[in-house]
Amino acid sequence: MAYEEDTSKQQSGQEKPVVRRDKVVVTKVTEQELAQIKSTADQCGMTRSNFIRARALGYKPRQRLSDKDLDGLRQLAACRTDMVNFANALHGLTDNEKIRLFRQQPIMLDWYEKVAFVTNRVTDFLQSAQTANHYPAGTTNEDAKEDGA
To answer: pTM for this one?
Structure first.
């Protein structure tokens, strides 16, 4: 896909090239379709233009999280913090101290590996849930597109 770039700022070498969107696409929709587009774009925290562009380019924007979902994420983040603090405390112990603490090193190491795995998964989930809706302008990131698009 070819993009017209504003090179006036690019010459200074300080700013990234700007993608200029100066082409207009017009389509007719019913009142009900317009209401649905407005509602869905609002739920995704996007402008109608960005929402329609993202959908037309094969991306599926996510809805914003509800207050209940955000509260759950906060609780999950607090749990993750506790797990990381505990894991860091264990990591700071020598092997002998860990053995004395748990008295069964294989069980403790197995548990520690599972905690690290869960902590990493929680981190991945929190980062993906907190990422704002966007579509990668000027890229061909196939992972962000819908299946079959």
So the answer is: 0.44
